Amino acid sequence: MTSPVSSGRRPYMRPMQGWWRRNTFYLEYMIHEATALFVAAYALVLLVGLVRLSQGQAAWDGWLQALRSPLSIVFHVITLVAISYHTWTWFNIMPRTLPPILLKGKRLSEAAITHSGLAAAVIVSLILLGLVWSLWA
Question: Which of 14, 72, 121, 125 has the lowest CB atom count within 10 Å?
Answer without folding.
Answer: 14
